[in-house]
Amino acid sequence: MKRVITYGTFDMLHYGHINLLRRAKELGDYLIVVLSSDEFNWNEKGKKTYFSYEQRKQLLEAIRYVDLVIPEESWNQKVTDVDLYKVDTFVMGDDWRGQFDFVADETSAEVVYLERTPEISTTQIKRDLNQE
Ligand code: C2G
């Protein structure tokens, strides 16, 4: 069974996220989503999410492409996660291109960056809604 992993906040879930998750799942048979905790978002990313971790987790678990959702609590858990879950492929959107190449150096997993879906982001949604 080919295991794929990806990381993110996935706040205000939108079709850009779904496109990423669909393509990530196409690279294997089992997709693990490591979901940024509320504390990680606030302390490390400076993001105040609209939905809580539990709400974002519930949304992700309802997606047919997603097999497991676990918390992201540190920038430094990726190598451990890949080893622990015996991951074959580490996937991120290409806004992160190059940032996680170390995972391929330190584990047996390949690192794949997938093209971001243009014209959509949680920030854009919030901006558009504020203008109504
Ligand atoms: N994404 C995408 N297209 C968009 C928006 C997002 O492909 N229009 C992808 C991002 O590239 C990322 C995933 O969807 O791979 C989740 O995006 P975010 O929730 O914004 O996650 P991010 O803040 O990039 O967190 O340790 C890694 C971080 O947790 C990644």
UniProtKB/TrEMBL annotation:
Q: State the EC number(s).
A: 2.7.7.39
Cellular component per GO, a single term: cytoplasm
Query: What Gene Ontology terms describe what this protein does at the molecular function level?
Result: glycerol-3-phosphate cytidylyltransferase activity; metal ion binding
A UniProt-annotated Pfam family: CTP_transf_like
- For whether the record's keyword set contains Endoplasmic reticulum, the answer is no
Look up keyword Heme and say if it applies.
no
Limits of the Cytidyltransferase-like domain: 5-127
The UniProt transmembrane annotation reads none
Q: What class of enzyme is it?
A: transferase
What is one process in the GO biological process aspect for this record? teichoic acid biosynthetic process
The protein's UniProt keywords, in alphabetical order, are: Nucleotidyltransferase, Transferase
Q: What is this protein called?
A: Glycerol-3-phosphate cytidylyltransferase
Q: Which organism is it from?
A: Weissella cibaria
Q: What is the lineage of its organism?
A: Bacteria, Bacillati, Bacillota, Bacilli, Lactobacillales
